[in-house]
Design goal:
Bound molecules: adenosine-5'-triphosphate, magnesium ion
CATH class of the largest domain: Mainly Alpha
Number of helices: 13
Mean pLDDT: 91
Structural class: alpha+beta
Shape: globular
Length: about 425
């Protein structure tokens, strides 16, 4: 009997039916493909454009496709940064009736960069460290919800610019598993594999002359471990103090907020005679700054971008002499009179080079640079014009870095 194509999806995407499922993914015609930077992979992965959306299609065995789809769905519900699954396509066959591999479809994560593209574009010496910091945060967040990754590496992660840092997203969940809680042994194993993989990946970059010779790959692998341990301890350690040092409760919460986390539940235990107090965060949620900015302005951005925007909001408020007005009201005025006009000052054709919040962050940096040079305050509209002229025009388009030849693309961007 001839097999029939089946698309399994949580929300029906009828447009998926238009894709050439009877052809092996390797041979899909250029018209349906979107040339975007892609990381290294064992399976065939291609990006396709359907209307205004871009999807990633990966060929793999049924069993793995369903497993990955399910895991990504659960991770999404738990609000960890990862790619969003769209569908699993099974029952594929070519025109001669020969079976073809199944596929998993995910939404292309816009403005994301595979690590090799980050290196081929960035000249900053601390790029590797910034990627590692982002990966450490992602790994801690995954471990906190009980996710064992099983194959942590730079190529299984996507990076998005987040103000002057990066935010990391999980892209490949195939080897992962969700548990109620991870044992210290499981965490250590995942972390150790991460370290080994990263060192290998950095050596590869070095061989490809994408990494400065002075960068010490092993030291960077070790840095992942220490960043991870530091953050894990800050988020989960038990802290004890005497009962008259209650300010330490607030202090702990403030420290966690600084790291970008909200405390959802804090266990406070006093001993028998009430002389000492023990506290331990039980539930922590990332996104402290982005939640606050969202509440105040409706802008939904990444956490460090939000931190930067909130700082600007604060100084705008002080400047406008409105420290006594309600924060909500001031935030609304800042949005309408500062944020929106600044973004609108960037020509539409250049706006898709970076996310709006990232543009605003870069314009703030540029304004600082101009004021240093000229020894005067620079208004935002002037900074925006100068930024477009001197910086943005010369930057690659990160939403859609395109290359004509797909193979070349693989070589260049891995
Ligand atoms: N939704 C997506 N958005 C952006 N890029 C994606 C997406 N899905 C996949 N990619 C790109 O494709 C690459 C390969 O995907 P993935 O890691 O899932 O393949 P794989 O064959 O399972 O890898 P491995 O060799 O680790 O098993 C990723 O590194 C990433 O660059
Ligand atoms: Mg992979």
């Amino acid at each position: 009997m001839e097999s029939s194509l089946q698309i399994t999806a949580a929300t029906p995407e009828a447009a998926l039916l238009d894709l050439p499922w009877r052809t092996p993914l390797e041979e899909w015609p250029a018209e349906v493909l979107a040339a975007l930077p892609r990381g290294i992979s064992r399976h065939t992965v291609r990006f396709v454009r359907l209307g205004s959306r871009v999807f990633a299609v990966k060929e793999t065995r049924d069993h793995y496709a369903f497993r990955e789809y399910e895991l990504l769905r659960r991770l999404g519900k738990l609000e960890v940064p990862c790619v969003v699954p769209v569908a699993v396509v099974t029952g594929r066959a070519d025109d001669d009736g020969e079976p073809l591999e199944s596929a998993i479809v995910t939404e292309h994560l816009s403005f994301s960069l595979p690590y090799r593209s980050v290196f081929s574009q960035s000249l900053r010496p601390d790029t590797a460290t910034r990627l590692i910091d982002a990966l450490a945060v992602l790994l801690v967040r995954l471990h906190l919800i009980g996710f064992y990754w099983g194959d942590v590496s730079l190529s299984n992660t996507l990076f998005r610019r987040d103000a002057d840092r990066f935010a990391a997203y999980l892209v490949d969940a195939e080897t992962g598993d969700l548990h109620r809680e991870l044992t210290p042994g499981q965490r250590a194993y995942d972390l150790d594999l991460a370290r080994t993989n990263i060192i290998g990946e950095l050596f590869d970059l070095e061989a490809g002359e994408l990494l400065d010779e002075d960068v010490d790959a092993i030291a960077i692998g070790d840095a992942l471990v220490s960043r991870y341990d530091e953050l894990w301890r800050a988020l989960t350690d038990v802290e004890s103090f005497s009962a008259d040092e209650r300010w330490r409760v607030d202090e702990r919460i403030r420290r966690l907020n600084d790291l970008g986390f909200d405390v959802g539940e804090l266990a406070i235990v006093t001993d028998f005679d009430g002389a000492t107090v023990q506290i331990q965060p039980k539930v922590v949620d990332a996104g402290h700054h982005s939640r606050r900015l969202l509440r105040l302005t409706g802008l939904d951005v990444q956490d460090n971008q939000a931190r930067r925007l909130l700082n600007d909001l604060d100084s705008w408020r002080a400047h406008a002499d409105r420290l006594n007005d309600s924060e909500q009201l001031v935030a609304h005025d800042w949005l309408v009179h500062s944020f929106e006009p600044t973004i609108a000052a960037v020509p539409r054709s250049l706006r898709k080079k970076l996310e709006p919040a990232q543009l605003f962050h870069e314009i703030l940096d540029h304004r600082w640079f101009l004021s240093q040079n000229e020894g005067r305050d620079i208004p935002m509209p002037e900074a925006a014009v100068s930024y477009v002229d001197q910086v943005l025009q010369h930057r690659p388009d990160e939403a859609m870095i395109s290359k004509d030849d797909d193979e070349d693309h693989d070589l260049l961007l891995g």
